[in-house]
Write a structure and sequence with these properties.
The structure holds two protein chains of two kinds. Chain A is of the alpha+beta class. Helix content of chain A is 50%, strand content 15%. In chain A, helix 5 packs across helix 7. Classes of the chains: A alpha+beta, B mainly alpha.
């Protein structure tokens, strides 16, 4: 099979599936090595961008999904009236960024950084499936530890956790002075 | 107009209130408020003029009280912390010799500065995340496609059997069972006399011997309600495992259970 054909098949798989499709599944269908497919996927993402296609391939960890482009939002909007997603409050956003960087993290640790109680914002984030309980710490009280979800990556356009914006580490270094 | 504004004290008060409200509501906590004060005063975070900032901080939380904003205890804790730092700064440093002074003297502000910096870091990230989220909000994703109608119904070997028929037959048997008349012993928890596994084994044996059985045949008259349930579950399980086939020749006809020949196991 030539590469063009492989790409075409992958595109049809993504279209058919709709939701995030794992590299594993793609590799099972095509009976092709995952590492090779990974390269193909990277190429496809570039192809789609280079050719300014109307859909793009979103990558989240090792999963792929077709989506529209943000710049076409106003056009698509004319087709339907999309529900306006309520944006997160500042409190929730702060909490979310702390969890994202410090995960796995307990509620108490988040509260130390923010200086306020965080029950409400943590609950909001769980409700919105942006964070989840990922276990409990083996110490007194067995506190719940939290981490982010794949949905978090998707909602903020991040392919992996490594793609998070860099922390302002300058401050950290100066801290020691 | 101007005259009216100046004279209307209520209005002025309202403006002031509104201003405060807008500003205050933006603070997510004492650290956010403190950060705002420091930025507003354009002072060095490593050298906070503690007396000045403390005064301003307390001024703010007083206003919060006045306009009935929900003030959480954390704001008060921070006020106390600030006052403590302020008082420590006022104390003359202990008159030891210079060398020791340098080692011992910890700036009382240090802990606060560390917390502020840590907080500031995540606040900056929160803003960045918000920007990213706003863009991503303009992207449409599709939910998982419903592929059922394209899929072969190969999972269950139900030849010509309406599932409703199977269910109705089950209800029929259930009604026939004499369980209602039996007394139920409430004080004892009885061990299940029959498990689904046992029942599956029995069924398989039966089918091996007879090749086919009628559905109704399985439920002899004095079978208890719980046995009916277990038998039914066993049948469903065997269908799922593709060990048996369930066939109904015609509508409302008898349901026949057969061994699944296609199963190579």
């Amino acid at each position: 099979m030539d590469i063009r054909e492989i790409k075409a098949i992958i595109e049809s798989l993504l279209f058919t599936w709709g939701d995030l499709l794992s590299l594993e599944d793609i590799s099972n269908v095509l009976e092709t090595d995952k590492k090779f497919l990974q390269e193909i996927m990277d190429e496809m993402i570039d192809d789609f961008n280079f050719n300014r296609r109307g859909v793009q391939i979103t990558k989240i960890n090792d999963n792929y999904q077709l989506s529209t482009r943000p710049e076409h939002f106003d056009w698509i909007k004319k087709l339907c009236t999309p529900r306006v997603n309520k944006t997160l409050s500042n409190a929730a956003l702060e909490t979310l960024s702390i969890v994202a960087y410090k995960q796995p993290i307990t509620k108490a640790e988040v509260e130390i950084i923010r200086g306020v109680k965080c029950d409400k914002s943590l609950n909001t984030l769980i409700e919105k499936n942006l964070i989840k309980e990922i276990g409990r710490l083996e110490r007194t009280g067995k506190p719940i530890i939290y981490g982010t979800t794949d949905d978090f990556l998707r909602k903020f356009g991040l392919s992996t956790l490594e793609a998070l914006p860099a922390l302002d580490e300058d401050n950290l270094e100066e801290e020691g002075h | 107009m101007l005259y009216k504004l100046i004279n209307d004290n209520k209005f002025v008060a309202k403006v002031i209130r509104m201003e405060y409200k807008v500003v205050l509501e933006a603070f997510e906590g004492p650290l956010a408020l403190l950060m705002h004060l420091i930025e507003k005063e354009k002072v060095d975070i490593y050298d906070i003029p503690i007396a000045k900032i403390t005064d301003q901080y307390i001024e703010y939380i007083k206003t919060m009280e006045n306009i009935d904003l929900n003030m959480t205890s954390e704001f008060l804790v921070m006020a106390a912390t600030l006052l403590e730092i302020k008082s420590k700064m006022l104390l003359p440093s202990s008159g030891k010799d210079d060398e020791q002074l340098e080692i011992d003297e910890i700036d009382p502000r240090e802990e606060l500065v560390r917390r502020l910096l840590e907080y500031k870091k995540y606040k900056a990230i929160a803003d960045e995340l918000k920007a990213k989220g706003d863009i991503q909000n303009r992207v449409f994703f599709k939910p998982k496609e419903e592929l059922e109608e394209f899929m072969e119904q190969g999972d269950f070997e139900l030849e010509n059997v309406d599932f409703k028929e199977l269910f109705l037959a089950y209800i029929n048997v259930l009604n026939r069972s004499k369980d209602e008349k039996k007394e139920i012993n409430l004080t004892e928890i009885q061990r299940d006399e029959l498990t689904i596994e046992d029942c599956m084994d029995n069924l398989e044996k039966l089918i091996k011997e007879k090749e086919k059985i009628m559905f109704e045949e399985l439920f002899y008259n004095d079978i208890s309600r719980i046995e009916v349930v277990i038998m039914f579950l066993a049948i469903l399980e065997l269908i799922k495992l593709k060990e048996i086939k369930v066939i109904q020749e015609q509508n409302f006809g008898d349901i026949i259970i057969k061994k699944n020949i296609n199963n190579l196991r």
